[in-house]
């Protein structure tokens, strides 16, 4: 994709630059802990330094970047407290979201979600596709929308990038079969229409991701905070 053309066609230039930087971080083009240089980004995109500087300030306010005095701007590294807070907040937000979705039990919305899941299963069989993790994101987003809880959706949006960063680590570990099986239980519990059970299933789904992340990063993050999650 030609990001330069994409950005130059947008009105809110600084915002689009911030989204470009985020995408580069998630894709691994910009590494966690690396330094961002305003002049290099502006030269690469063919734009002035002003919108890049504004974008970086915006990302600092979002805790995506850190500003070290006399050193510059760096991509923020998550510590174990950050990881715990991301997963525990996700469990709370998405647990309530699926509970409300199950309680509403909207047949049309559920059928649309099932179609999305069926598409995910079809892509699993395609040998040319190595990852179907983006379907996981779509399923979780759809369940949030099914809750019809606008404030809940907005709170989730505020941590969505942090979740993407964490998920990008697990995407390298998860197989396509694992992704499908993990999300099949979410679909099935919504079909049952049991709000309490749905919330429990979603919370356990996210707890497992937390355990997997800690296991994948053994030696980097301690297991001390695992005690706060049910096994």
UniProtKB/TrEMBL annotation:
InterPro entries: GntR_C (IPR011711), TF_FadR/GntR_C (IPR008920), Tscrpt_reg_HTH_GntR (IPR000524), WH-like_DNA-bd_sf (IPR036388), WH_DNA-bd_sf (IPR036390). Keywords: DNA-binding, Transcription, Transcription regulation. Residues 11-78 form the HTH gntR-type domain. The keyword Metal-binding does not apply. GO terms for molecular function: DNA binding; DNA-binding transcription factor activity. Pfam families: FCD, GntR. The keyword Cell membrane does not apply. SUPFAM superfamilies: GntR ligand-binding domain-like, Winged helix' DNA-binding domain. This is GntR family transcriptional regulator. The lineage of its organism: Bacteria, Bacillati, Bacillota, Bacilli, Bacillales.
């Amino acid at each position: 994709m030609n990001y330069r053309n994409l950005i130059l066609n947008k009105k809110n230039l600084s915002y689009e630059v911030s989204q470009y930087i985020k995408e580069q971080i998630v894709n691994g083009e910009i590494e966690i802990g690396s330094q961002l240089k305003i002049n290099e980004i502006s030269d690469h995109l063919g734009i002035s330094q002003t919108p890049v500087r504004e974008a970086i300030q915006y990302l600092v306010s979002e805790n995506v970047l850190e500003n070290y005095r006399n050193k510059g701007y760096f991509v923020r590294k998550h510590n174990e407290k950050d990881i715990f807070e991301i997963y525990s907040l996700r469990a709370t937000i998405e647990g309530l979201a699926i509970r409300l979705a199950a309680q509403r039990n909207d047949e049309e919305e559920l059928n649309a979600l099932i179609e999305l899941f069926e598409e995910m299963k079809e892509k699993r069989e395609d040998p040319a596709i190595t990852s179907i993790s983006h379907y996981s994101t779509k399923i979780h987003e759809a369940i949030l929308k099914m809750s019809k809880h606008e404030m809940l959706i907005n709170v989730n949006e505020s941590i969505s990038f942090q979740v993407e960063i964490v998920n990008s680590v697990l995407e390298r570990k998860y197989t396509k079969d694992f992704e499908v099986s993990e999300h099949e239980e979410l679909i099935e519990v919504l079909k049952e229409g049991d709000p309490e059970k749905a919330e429990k299933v979603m919370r356990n789904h996210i707890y497992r991701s937390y355990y997997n992340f800690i296991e994948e990063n053994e030696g980097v993050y301690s297991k001390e905070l695992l005690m706060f999650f049910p096994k």
